[in-house]
Amino acid sequence: MDNTKLTAKFLEAIKPGVSAANFKTFFAKSELELVDDQQVVVFVPTAFAKATLLQRHLPLLEKTAQTLIDKKVAVEITVRPNLNQLPADEDLFAPQVSKSAFSLNPKYTLENFVVGPSNNVAYAAAQAVAQNPGTSYNPLFIYGGTGVGKTHLMLGIGNAISKKRVSNGVIYCSSEKFMNDYVSAIQNRKMIDLRARYRSAYILLIDDIQFFSGRDGTQEEFFHTFNDLQAKNSQMIITSDRPPGQIEKLEDRLRSRFAGGLMVDIQPPDFDTRVAILKAKCSQWGNALPEDTLKLIASSSQLSIRELEGKLLQILQTLKARNLTPAAENIASFLNTSVQKRPSLTYKEVFLSVCQYFNIKNSDLTGPRRQKELVLPRHLTMYIMSEELGMTVEKIGQLLGGRDHTTVMHARDKIRQLINKDREVQRMFIEVKQALSTLS
Ligand code: ADP
Ligand code: MG
Where do the record's region annotations for Domain IV, binds dsDNA lie (predicted)? Predict the structure, then answer.
């Protein structure tokens, strides 16, 4: 069976087992490739789809693949962004200029990392590590939400060190690559090579280690790599979207190793930092925008710098294509039209997305029950109806089972605060919004 056929069969088999919206969002754009009779790779367009598939649908994927191929196969999920999409994480890998698969993308440096209150502690730690690798802060564990600059900072350290010393001892690798290398080393009986490669590192950078969750073999191998490198005073830098204590299915011994180094977090950037980053990106790309327009853009996204950068890029391209001046009204109208791209977004769709995400019923949202599992989704719904749909608190209260408008106000303000403080809530908000944005 060729891969196109395999993909079609696979999707057909998956479809009845998941909701229509889930299917459309997470499966429809995936592609399958049979590597050999023991391994299937599922390519998905976004890191979000990958995370969701890993977290919630891996057993289904494995079962379906096994039925199709009539054999137990390992399923790997890999991001392969569409060409017309904005840069994804994978773009951080350098184009293969050198022979090494581990070369760092030189674009991300400590010098062009903009420092503000949200990231200054992490930045100071990064500088300390770059100056004295392997001594005091080992490992350096950087955590924070999506698109806040973890990978950039990590590569910045790697680049700073490889400038000073032999660069071939610096290994950057996504946790996914480590996992894949481990799996294929087992299959091809190349464990010795794998160990030799990773343990030769003078600096080891492992990105997004939360994906090690539940991978017992990988964790075991990494534990030994870790000990070996630490004994040699080789510096390790690890990033994650959450602190080790919150990574599920992570061995305690790894957790305590990570806690034995320095743990720093990066918060979503405040307004001034966002403006400063936009300014820096403009000048890097050889463009300039007036301060007031940068401020307009900065106020349009709060959480992710990646998202902000994407908007900036689109705006610059649109201005150029339509030959417009970067006047505030042009930018504002662009930001508005890009917000209003989905005029059909209704409160019912918000209900639908929230219910699917939390796996609850519509009547749970609108009903009187006050369990914790229902209250948070309900409050998040209120927040989204207010912030994204611009509905009045009175109307929101009415649609959510006749609740008082002061309740709605209270809930909205609480969620607004939590989104800035609490990573779990932040993630839920981002994911529900992503799910919403895929509804058409
Ligand atoms: P994460 O790994 O946390 O998801 P990235 O490191 O990939 O985020 O950052 C996303 C984008 O935002 C990158 O293009 C990066 O250069 C940019 N970025 C993030 N933080 C900063 C910063 N402090 N200064 C300059 N650019 C930044
Ligand atoms: Mg990253």
Answer: 320-440
Number of domains in the chain: 4
pLDDT digits (tens, 9 = 90+) for 363-416: 999 999 999 899 999 999 999 998 878 789 999 999 999 999 999 999 999 998
Ligand 1 centre distance from Cα of residue 146 (Å): 9
Q: How far apart are CA 91 and CA 180, in angstroms?
A: 18
Judgement on whether residues 15 and 67 belong to the same structural domain of the protein: yes
Q: Are residues 108 and 234 in the same domain?
A: yes
Measured in degrees and rounded to the nearest 5, phi and psi for residue 351 equal -55, -50
Please give the residue range of the domain that contains residue 372.
Answer: 347-439
Residues 411/379, Cβ–Cβ less than 8 Å: yes
Contacts of 93-99 with CB under 8 Å at 24 or more apart are: 93/172
Centroid of ligand 2 to alpha carbon of 102 (angstroms)? 16
Ligand nearest to the CA of 153: 1
pLDDT tens readout for residues 30-51: 888 777 777 788 888 766 677 7
Say how many Å lie between the CA of residue 152 and the centre of ligand 2: 7
DSSP codes joined into one string, 138-201: -SEEEEESTTSSHHHHHHHHHHHHHHHS-GGGEEEEEHHHHHHHHHHHHHTT-HHHHHHHHHT-
Ligand 1 atom at minimal distance to the Cα of residue 207? 2
